[in-house]
Amino acid sequence: LLGVILLKKNSKLNKSIKEVGEREIISLIQKNLSPMPKITIPFGDDVSAFELDKKKLAVIKTDMLTSKTDIPNEMSLWQAARKAIVMNVSDFASKGVKPSAAIVSLGLPNTFSLKNVKEIACGLNAGAREYDTYIIGGDIGETSDLIIAVSLFGTSMKKGIMQRKGANIGDIVAVTGQFGKTAAGLKILINEINVLPKLRKPLVSSVCFPKARLQEGLALRASKSVTSSIDSSDGLAWSLFELSRSNKLGFLINKIPIADEVREFAESNGLDPFELAFYGGEEYELVITLKSESLEKTQKNLEKNGSKLIPIGKVIKEQKMFAIINGKKEIIESRGWEHFKNIG
Amino acid sequence: LLGVILLKKNSKLNKSIKEVGEREIISLIQKNLSPMPKITIPFGDDVSAFELDKKKLAVIKTDMLTSKTDIPNEMSLWQAARKAIVMNVSDFASKGVKPSAAIVSLGLPNTFSLKNVKEIACGLNAGAREYDTYIIGGDIGETSDLIIAVSLFGTSMKKGIMQRKGANIGDIVAVTGQFGKTAAGLKILINEINVLPKLRKPLVSSVCFPKARLQEGLALRASKSVTSSIDSSDGLAWSLFELSRSNKLGFLINKIPIADEVREFAESNGLDPFELAFYGGEEYELVITLKSESLEKTQKNLEKNGSKLIPIGKVIKEQKMFAIINGKKEIIESRGWEHFKNIG
Q: Exposed/middle/buried for B204, CB within 10 Å: 0-12, 13-18, 19+?
């Protein structure tokens, strides 16, 4: 029997990473790492954090952009480099933490010119300065693909840091913006779909010039009303399922915030706007839960600075996800963008 | 005239990165980044550091290993992953700072199996635990080469952190071990040179299982006698030239610490042992300067824990590097391992 078990285990390890997808790979890696004792935010949240002293946390995060999967042809090197910063800042934003400094490991194909390198440096710097942070170190190496691995560092008071866990039944689910634009934009770029310029511009721009909701994240944390928080870099559905898993609770989504351009794009191309809004990715809105009695006050606070907080549903006891689509309550499937698995 | 200048500048930017080498690329990147105000250790040292408060520093570093240039065929994935940690720890060691936590961006070719991934995770963990640190976060993505981009984080008292700058005329130059083994080991692995097993083993092991001198770095800092410090990951000559540049001073090296195995390997293969010791790389000894009156006491302190501190020369006013080779004073050229330039 032991032989059979070992054989099974080994045959599983012989599987190609293409067969299993990102989450199973990450889970295997985590299983083989010794956990840091008394860590405040371990694996499985948007950032990692540990105590600097009794009140203060060190917060760190790394997220890598690779030309093999993450950079559509139309995206410039400047945009790609800026985006590599933005996607890390978005994770800090979702915890309500201001980043202090970034370091960058850059893998460069040897066909690159100095001009290409300058464009990348300028894009990195633009991204960092946009969120009032600095790039203070890095490394370069030779690689087949362009690789931009950014690590972000910041400090935070332990008290009030927003985590994925903490939602309660009856809390409101809310988001900082509308969804579906990057999914539509990626379809335009990858499938070379022709659309009118007035649609093309905002949809492609959401892919090539994304923005992190740092101001919103800091304001949400200051409101003290948020019970759980995540960014939506792997899609709205994925973010909701992550919050659901972390909290062992479910959601009833009654109003899906789909951008007008997305509805128009979907209609003229025979696509499902809900699909675009739910299962997109590379979108950097924050998805939070908050106490229902604090919604109005928190919304007003965010609006003061030109930001939005859109309620989209509520937290329910049953660990499932439902959405009201065209007046009908439907169950939402657990899927979203996953590296490796989504590729050929 | 302005036209000519602009033309010249542009033609320089049109150059391929292969033509210019790592240092010029890094310098171009730095020129295009906004410097963080009041940073304690900016670009150009082994780590970056900025103030957490008046007494304490945040110390960060990223160093990337790529299969395209950094992983010889004989090196296992476990060894490569462990080495990716070790090379970052070495930079912390050279500043006398203990790392607290690491995060890793991992680029995986889609031909990898879960077994390959497990081996990498175990290697990363082994490297981290060897130096009493933990891997607390990371990211994975699909890449053509294997990419292991490690970022290391730690805190340090501001007082006493060892930097590249600080050497004085008359200081002793000292190192924590002998040189040349990795240069010899890499020749064995890359040029497939046949050698006796008793030579092969230690030389190849220095490449595949390097060690960071963290214990030595912490003890050296505690000794309060060190005036400047660097690790030797780009070769002994390169490290000395970096210290020379940072301090605007020179060195007279009177005793080059070459490992016995390196002398033997060089002799039987018609190679120059000084070349192997000076212009190697991927070696993780510390190269420091210290007050001459403190040498003996510092040596004794290090020997208590089984470590070594070998004096190899002294700091001179003239910003040049001389070495006594076979009884003759020779001038040493400024060169060492450089990515991109050294490749076809």
A: buried
**Per-residue exposure over A113-148, b if at least 16 CB sit within 10 Å of its own CB, e if not:** bbbbbbbbbbbbbbbbeebebbbbbbbbbbbbbbbb
Question: Hey, how many other C-beta atoms are within 10 angstroms of the C-beta on A31?
Answer: 9
User: In the sheet that A101-108 helps form, which strands lie side by side, from edge to edge?
Assistant: A48-51, A56-66, A147-157, A101-108, A134-142
Of A13, A34, A111, the CB nearest to B113: A13
Cβ atoms of B102 and B136 within 8 Å: the answer is yes
Cα–Cα distance measured from residue A278 to residue B72, given in angstroms and rounded to the nearest whole number: 44
Give phi and psi for B156, each to the nearest 5: -155, 145
Each residue of B56-85: pLDDT tens digit?
999 999 999 999 888 998 999 999 999 999
**ipTM of the modeled complex:** 0.93
pLDDT digits (tens, 9 = 90+) for A288-335: 999 999 999 999 999 998 999 999 999 999 999 999 988 899 998 776
SS3 state of residue B87: helix
State how beta strands B321-325 and B286-290 pair.
Answer: unpaired
B118 vs A144: CB contact, 8 Å cut-off?
no
Query: What is the distance of C-alpha B273 from the center of its chain?
Result: 20
> Could you say which of A42, A125, A145 has the minimum Cβ distance to residue B144?
A145
Which residues partner with B107 through β-bridges?
A: B141, B147
Query: Min CA distance, A232 vs chain B (Å)?
Result: 16
